[in-house]
Amino acid sequence: MTLIGWIQIALFCLIIVALAAPVGGYMTRVFNGERTFLSPVLKPVEAGLYRLAGVDESTEQHWLTYTIAMLLFHVGGFFIIYLLMRWQEFLPFNPAGQSPVPPELSFNTAISFITNTNWQNYGGESTLSYLVQMLGLTHQNFLSAVTGIVLAVALIRGFARASAKTIGNFWVDITRCTLYILLPICVPYALFLIWQGMPQTLGAYVDATTLEGAKQTIAVGPVASQVAIKMLGTNGGGFFNANAAHPFENPTALTNFVQMLSILVLGAAMTNVFGRMVGNQRQGWAILAAMGVLFIAGVAVCYWAEANGTATLNVLGLAGGNMEGKEVRFGIVASALFAVVTTAASCGAVNAMHDSFTALGGMIPMINMQLGEIVVGGVGAGLYGMLMFVVITVFVAGLMVGRTPEYVGKKIEAKDVKMAMLAILILPLMMLGWTAIAVVYPPAVASIANAGPHGFSEVLYAYTSQAANNGSAFGGLTGNTPFYNVSGAIAMFVGRFWVIVPMMAIAGSLAAKRIVPPSLGTFPTTGGLFVGLLVGVILIVGGLTFFPALALGPIVEHLAMQAGSVF
Amino acid sequence: METSKLRKHSSAATLLDTRIVVPAIGQAFVKLNPITLMKNPVMFVLEVVSALTTVLLIRDITVGTGGGLFEAQIVLWLWFTVLFANFAEAVAEGRGKAQADALRRTRSETRAKRLLLPDNHETYENVAADDLAAGDLVVCEPGDIIPGDGEVIEGIASVNEAAVTGESAPVIRESGGDRSAVTGGTTVISDRIVVRITSSPGSSFLDRMIKLVEGAERQKTPNEIALNILLVGLTIIFIFATATIPSYAAYAGGAISVVILVALFVTLIPTTIGALLSAIGIAGMDRLVRFNVLAMSGRAVEAAGDVDTLLLDKTGTITFGDRMATEIVPVPGVSEHEAAEAALLASLADETAEGRSLVALTHEKYGLTRQPVPEGATFIPFSAMTRLSGIDAAGRKLRKGAIDSVLKFVRDQSGQTVVEPPNFRAAVDRIAQSGGTPLALAEGGRLLGVIHLKDVVKPDVKDRFAALRRMGIKTVMITGDNPVTAASIASEAGVDDFIAEATPEDKLRYIRGEQGNGRLIAMCGDGTNDAPALAQADVGVAMQSGTQAAREAGNMVDLDSNPTKLIEIVEIGKQLLMTRGALTTFSIANDVAKYFAIIPAMFVAFYPQLQILNVMNLSTPQSAILSAIIFNALIIIALIPLALKGVKYRPIGAAALLRRNLLIYGLGGLVLPFIGIKAIDLAITALHLA
Description:
The structure holds two protein chains of two kinds. The radius of gyration of chain A is 23 Å and the shape is globular. In chain A, strands 1-2 form a two-stranded antiparallel sheet. In chain A, helix 8 crosses helix 9 (253-277). Chain A is 64% helix and 2% strand. Chain A is built from 19 helices and four strands. Chain B is α+β, with helices and mostly antiparallel strands. In chain B, helix 2 (18-30) packs across helix 5 (69-109) and helix 22 (566-603) crosses helix 24 (654-687). In chain B, the strands form four sheets. A seven-stranded mixed beta sheet of chain B has the order 10-22-21-20-11-18-19, with helices on both faces. At the A-B interface, helix 14, helix 15, helix 17 and helix 19 of A face helix 8, helix 9, helix 12, helix 17 and helix 22 of B.
């Protein structure tokens, strides 16, 4: 570990915190339908879109209507991607002449993109046409991100409103989020990436003659436009198979840093949106603080583990940490930080191979995802996931002050606890359950590249990543098989929507409640005590759930590694 | 009476009284019935897995494929865990049962004298109390037990209500007015009354009381339901966590026996709080009963903990009921002694509280000795018409009373217009503005001075209200006084707000307004005109001495008819919630140590490296697992006293309270099992049990 490494990490955290309030303030105005500096340009466009779709801007929806609208919207998204992939050879913008994608892989990819997972069982440059990349994937990168954000906003409205029947209008929210938030950031962001050397073309792949005289095909395409939203929307699906480790997808140290920032910026700002909407920004800061504690702890462990390298290599005199699977141009700190950032959020873009991390270094991304990606988290999804833990924390601890637990003035009652528990227990079921099946099902075991606990980690990571809608891969596992394609798609689908529906039920239940004014008898949720308690509950509930699995994977691997045996 | 003794004398000290413990042990086995146990999902799951492991153990022993001492001990301790949970509940119930039995005896032995004809109050038939229907008229004579709840429609009687209130001093019950309600099970001491029965059989106050103290019809309270859901959720998560282990172990080339998996599962699921949850609820209700308050629902007890605003009647709660004289201000030309002497004489025969306080004042402040009423004196009592009182003795006409009435008297006596001395008017205004009542004092045609009557605030209320404020509870005083008087008393007593010149409608409006702002309101009342407000309040405490209407409207009845008890009721409500929260936190925090005991023991056979996780250095895998499961069972027994007594509430503000409880139950829950499991491991190893 180096001082410059720590300075880089500190600078990163500072910028994220500094951006939270201004970006949060802007987002709050957008979702409240207030005027922003872009309104003169965008308001007519927005109004035109509503007219075109026949949406009444002023009508709000009940939580159930809102949720059903969202689900229907995704059914449409699923079919667009699936059919584009199946029929890509008959469609335009296919200069490389890609053939139809097989059904299971199309199914997995379609689910993957509507759930904001972007799990890649396909290799972008070798499988997909430009049309699929743009109309299918980039398009869903926008919409799945927007969905996460607006659902979180709907939940926030549940906390903020008193005795209300409605929590907003799904169609209006997604339109505003896309027009006012994502597009205005993505356009200049993509231009920045192009300036840094990222390709943006509809032209065919380039043939080059190498110095040795060999022929090489260099894949290009509309990369920058996709990467901008891939990061900002915490999607993570790479244009290229190597994702952000590919020089065209992450050309410079500056793009690496800016890409990391863009992964967390909206998620962190959402905590501020929460604070503003419930009328006390400190509530938002408290949540961001809890996320921050978990984030910094994760970065510290991961950086330490990677910088120390493995005992085996150290014995051989190879000091300087673990560089296996890392881009030399990024080095250890930028790779460790990237790994924690991408799994803290539900991004899943990678600039190094997590499979090659040390056991403990690779365990941190896994834990980040197993906790439900609530450490800042996916855009919107991180906040609503975190709020589910807040509900549980407030419920247990709130009882200890001798009152029916309440959070930001809303009493937490049986229905809310029930829904929060449902949302929380879905992820362990998908992550642990599918892993348990895969490690004893012979065709699935055959896909595992490494022996022993490391092989176990590969499977655990795969389902963890998919259920948490992260999409990063540990590597080592051959995922493009019928079993993994189908089971992974189920994990992604359930991990996304079975969390969303109970969460939205809470939004509806909370919106209908009165707001209890705070008093001295109210358990304060803005101070260090609450932050510590929230972190404690997350670690105990999450830790207890995954401890046996982690013990058999990374922990035992680490202990073995210290004794000199690697897998 | 026996019941009253029970209630007054059984305290937390007799927690593990053999009269309760012995039957509770039997009950613990009866409660193994899966149908009743299903109400407690965590314990039900525990019973299911215990039965499963028992079957496996028997199979292994009969087939001869294993089933050693270790497995047998695990199974045994699993059953102990279920039994301990049942025992906790049985002990909590046992404390109410004895009381209920005594009450039930009163009811079943009662006979009633039912009138044959409604208009003829003399002829009656003798029937069992259970046969009475609502609307029947009964006669009660001295020595009779009133056969059911009802209303006195004729006569007046003194009634001993000890059977219900535990208080043996008789109370007066009469037809009409606010004292017409009688309660079944109470005894008429003197005179004869005719009572119209208002309760149908089985739903009388006494019946409800029996059910309440017995906990027979205990409904789960809202927070208890929510907590149960949380516990079920955690249990399901731990099913996922443990059920997937065999497959992971198989991949690693190992195998894990069912009994060990069950041991891990049982120690992880929140058995501690699951076992004690219903005991906590029953004990909470029981604490109220011990306090002589009957809550008609558990919901009301919980709501008491949530109360934001207390509505308190001024009279009797904040101030002593009666106003007292505190000073005498003479007019110029009259000495203090002369005025005091006149005041004493004027009050000698006045038996009202105000008159007596004036006599006491002249004695204490002005050094006069009490003298007998002079021979031949005529006492002029206070009347609403004259608004003054006094005495005519030895040619002196002494009067005290409302200012204008006394001035009129002086004018009539002297036959000329009275010139008010300037300091007289100043004193009157000062007293009125301070919230007191000024009385003028005169002798014949001569004005002597002003007497200051004051509503005296009870000495300890200010501290109590300060404590309530620290609890985050706002106090509101309700009074019929004018705003000036009310404001003065309010500031002296330290209440946060007041409603002056309050009518029943004002109370109702205030409650609705506060509720509209999301606050929970508690109030107490006794009169029929309090009933709407009592019904509207989230916690309405009716006085046992109050009317039937008030008692029906409230969701609690205070048998001691003491309005200051609201404060304790709030504390009991908070205590109930806190105890649940504290034991839940404790239970979850315990899991960390159990993991460190069982996980290495479980996997060490095929991953010896994991021995490093055995931070407690437990001697063998078997003893580690056994120690964890024994700790898990014994902690239930150890915590029964806390569950029954409740976690003490301290009015130190939510943040401080949370910090304190987190430290004790969170951190304590984290650390204690490490020590406990290690100690049990040492004992097991010493005894060669594993």
